[in-house]
Structure formats: structure tokens, C-alpha cells
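Entry for pyridoxal-5'-phosphate complex. Fields follow.
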Amino acid sequence: MSNAVTRTTFDQVMVPNYAPADFIPVKGLGSRVWDQQGTEYIDFAGGIAVNSLGHCHPELVAALTEQAGKLWHLSNVFTNEPALQLATRLTNLTFAERVFFCNSGAEANEAAFKLARKYAADNFGAHKNEIISCKNSFHGRTLFTVSVGGQPKYTEGFAPVPAGITHVEYNNIDALKAAISDRTCAVVIEPVQGEGGVLPADKAYLEAARELCSQHNALLVFDEVQTGVGRSGSLFAYMEYGVTPDILSSAKSLGGGFPIGAMLTTTAIAKSFGVGSHGTTYGGNPLACAVADKVIEIVSRPEVLAGIRAKHDRFVAGLNAINAKYNVFKTVRGMGLLIGGVLTDEFAGRAKDFLKAAEKQRLMVLVAGMSVVRLAPSLVIEDKDIDEGLSRLDAAIAELVSAR
Ligand SMILES: *Cc1c(COP(=O)(O)O)cnc(C)c1O
């Protein structure tokens, strides 16, 4: 029987690199999810900032099924209408003039870093190959992206790793100033560090990075895999800051749950990715692009973006009210619908306990590191789901602190 699989099956047939929850979700609608036993959960996790329009949004189901009846895959030996439509929409709505499609955030960053090196080599010489990135940053799990990422635990055991990468403290202008030189080809920044603890960049930091990059002919790369596609309250977080990068990577919310990644840049920089220089078989797949085009169309509606800001305020007010009762958060921070509750010293290192306690109350939340409880819900989550989920979180935290 095909549905005779259980959580135990995971331990028997899967590579043990994940530790999934004890239950198996089988159905989702909006911000509600049901498991094999029919238990209903409220989803504040959003598939890690992926399900931008919740589960099975009717317009996305329609876009996917319509394309499924037409054409699934061609490879890049041919182009296709959904890819061209999506690229047109993205270039109309952003600084970018050119788009490269792939299938994940890591691949979008891999393309961004390779392009930055190639552009520097083409225009200034091979010596200009250094990439500056931030401590505690996260850029994906391929060997190059994990090396640019600023969390040493993720490269342990995988040496030798690519060379020419320097890490500096996030939000520290002086550190960046000291590290950047004419050998720097790119400075890579997450406008809000997601995995690193939902830590927003200071506006002055991004402005300084922009200026330093321009002075040194280095490209400013914004990794918006987590912050992009409405998550911040603007279509991309760079718009919220008013600081424009040279290259931007997007994925996660872009596909609303269908795998896709994109690298956005200008015509002049894109020139360095000439025919044959880079590629991927699935990138620009018609199914993925048809869904993502609908995601962008919906998220960029002014009422949807305004809704994200209103929901941010509703979440923050709710979290602050919970905190007034239990005093578990040092601070509640983030942008739009990427929100982090930083645990007090008393609970530092125990974010996973909050996730488990929430699960018991039938609420899905995320962690970001060991000491931040992270929420990345659907951008169109209904207010009643926010309120109901927050009251479940209240119950979860009440139980946790009762052991004080
Ligand atoms: C998730 C994430 C990635 C990696 O994306 P994948 O789709 O998992 O490869 C890269 N950068 C940031 C900022 C992310 O949050």
C-alpha cells in the first residue's frame, strides 16, 4: 500500500541529514496543514519562507495545472514562453535588465558568485577574484556557497574548500572598509540575515557597502533568497532600504513551493555569461516559471504588499503581548513577514524547545540558530489564522515556562 509509509520509514530509507518532525503532513490549504492522522496545524513556518501564498493557493494551482497540460520541459536548447514572461515581469519590476533561471537558492548564488568572478576577470584581470562575505551568513549548501557562507560548521569535513573568500563582521562598516581592496570582485550581503538569526542590516551599512563597491569596482551582491518576493514588505528588500545591488539572487518565495531560483543583474554584467559559460538543464523550466510568474503577479499587487506590512504589525503586537506575560524574548525583530524572537539569556540555546512545544500545540514555527524563534508564514495568511496561531504559541510558551 502506497500510504503505508510512516515516520519510521524515514529512518530506514533516507540519508540521515535531516531530523523531521514526528508527524507527516499530507494536505495543506492556506495556512492550515493536516497530518496523516488528520490533526490540523497552523503554519507560521511557510516551508521556510517558501509558501509565499500559503498552501494550494487556487491561482497557483490553476497556473500549474494549466501549464501541466501544455508543456513541461524543453531544456535550454529551446526557450519557452513562461520563462520569457517571468523574466519580463522581473525586469519590469526591479533594477535588473537580465535574468538567469535555476532551481534553488544555492544555484542562484552559485551563478552570482561565478558571474562576479568572471566579470572581474573579463574587465579587470584574474587577480581580482576575492569575495567578501559576512560572518554568520548563509548562502546555500553547494561547496562554493557554503564556503562563501559565514558559518564554519557547514564546511567542516568538506575540505579543501574554494579559496579567495574573506568573512567580515555583519553591520560593521569599518570591518568592510578594512577588507575591501582592488582585488575584491564582490561583496555579498543578505539584507536581513535569515538563518543567522533574522538580523536586519543597518541602512547605513548597506549604503556604505554600495559606495565601497563602486569605489573598488566590486559588485554588490544581495542574497535575497529569503528576503525577496514580498517577504520584507516590498517586492525585494533592497527597495525597502533604497540601496541597489549589481546582482540579486532569489528563490524560496519565488516559486511559492515549486522549485525555482533566479539571478538578476544588469545587461553590462550579464555580458560576462556568454554562450556556454554557465548553465543548468532544468533552469527556466516552463512549469516552475508559470507558477513563479503568477506568484510575482499576485505579490506585487499593492494591496498584497500593504497586507504584509499590516500582518507584520499584528504579529509583532501579538508576540510582544506574549512576551509581556512570560518574558522569554530579549527582542522581536525582522522585516515584513520574516520575524524573529530573540530568546532571553535564560532560554538562550533552547529555540528548538520552543519549536517542539509549538508543535505540541499544533503550530509550525521555525528556528534561526540556537536562540531565535523564527516565523516566515504565508504573505497572505488570514488574520484569524495569525490570532489562532499566536494563542497556540502562547499556550506552548506557557507550558515551557511552567518548568521555570
Ligand atoms: C535558503 C537560503 C539559501 C539556499 O537556498 P536553497 O534553495 O536551500 O539552495 C541561500 N541564501 C539564503 C539567504 C537562504 O535563506
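NOTE: The CA atoms of residues 130 and 164 lie 5 Å apart.
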